[in-house]
Amino acid sequence: MGFIDVHCSPFGMLGCWLGRKAKARSLEVHSEVTKLKVRLHQFLSKTGHFSSKREAKDAVWRGEITVNGSIVKDIAYQFNPRTRPVEYNGRRLFLPDSDITFVMNKPSGYLCARINENERAIGKRSVFDLFEEHVDSTVHARLLTVGRLDEATTGLLIVTTSGDLVHRVTAPEHHVAKRYWVSSKRPLTEEAGQQLAEGVSIELESEGAISYYLTQPATLVRVNDRDFILEVVEGKKRQVRRMVAAVGNAVEHLHRLSIGNADLEDFDLDEGAMREVKPAEIEAWFEQA
Questions:
Q1: What residue ranges of the chain are covered by domains with CATH 3.30.2350.10?
Q2: pLDDT band at 8 (very low <50, low <70, confident <90, very high)
Q3: Bridge partners, 93 (sequence order)
Q4: Sign of the C-alpha dihedral, residues 182, 183, 186, 187?
Q5: Of 75, 132, 184, 259, whose CB has the highest number of CB atoms within 10 Å?
Q6: CATH 3.10.290.10-classified regions of the chain
Q7: Nearest-5° Cα angle at 141, 137 to 145
């Protein structure tokens, strides 16, 4: 014997069936809308506007983010970015359809930062200048460097619109290795080389305050008495130069060879040249050997 819906009369069976269909469709629509929802901090990281997840979260906590016109201070707040606009200090933020990432062979004499007209007037140049002919203005405005090389340092630089990739490489807890070819002004003694490998105390400055940091153990491979390859897993400002200074020497030239499994030599790039990399290539950078 079949099941009979006691809430439906024989004459109302069609109406009940249509009602159940409408309810099911409503649940499907609700499910699809739910799938479109993202957490606020995830949305902000994907806009490419923030250099790290921490920076995005701080902006939320400071009350600088509005969703649909209202300030939201909950980083886990869920919403549909297609229907609720997000602004950062009055500026509309958008979720890009996809991110783009480049590797480049950074030349000497370029800063890994946006520069103003006053800086241009005294001859400063930015690595972002090199991208102007390769990407449109909307992408150019979203580009970030994955960490920074100082003005004189050359070599591998990753440039991307992905805040997630920046965090993945630069966050200290991820321990992504970076290898540098270091040319020192004076021969590196055996003692100095051992100190660099074991960790040295370097001076750091933040907002005028001086602190000291003990570097983590590093890998050092000698090439000759003045040239060596140094691999570190941190990314403190001017860290390699400060490490060499801490053992009584100085850097003559500094060139980054690799980040994770991304090796500059594999890309065959002339100085100042760049090329786009695909998601599969990026994932390979983080695979364990």
A1: 101-284
A2: very low
A3: 86
A4: positive
A5: 259
A6: 38-93
A7: 130
What's the fold here for domain 38-93? 3.10.290
pLDDT digits (tens, 9 = 90+) for 65-95: 999 999 999 999 999 887 888 899 987 787 6
Catalytic residue among 99, 129, 150, 164: 150
**Mean pLDDT over the full length of the chain:** 86
Closest to 48 measured CA to CA, from 151, 160, 123: 160
Overall size of the chain counted in residues: 289
pLDDT tens-digit readout, 244-257: 999 999 999 999 99
Per-residue HEC secondary structure of the chain comes to CCCCCCCCCHHHHHHHHHHHHHHHHHHHHHHHHHHHCEEHHHHHHHCCCCCCHHHHHHHHHCCCEEECCEECCCCCCEECCCCCCEEECCEEECCCCCCCEEEEEECCCCECCCCCHHHHHCCCCEHHHHHCCCCCHHHHHHCEECCCCCCCCEEEEEEECCHHHHHHHHCHHHCCCEEEEEEECCCCCHHHHHHHHHCCEEEEEECCEEEEEECCCCEEEECCCCEEEEEECCCCCCHHHHHHHHCCCCEEEEEEEEECCEEHHHHCCCCCCEEEECHHHHHHCCCCC
Say whether 225 is catalytic. no
- Segment 224-272, tens digit of pLDDT: 999 999 999 999 999 999 999 999 999 999 999 999 999 999 999 999 9
Lookup result for tokens 């920074």: 148
Class of domain 101-284: alpha beta
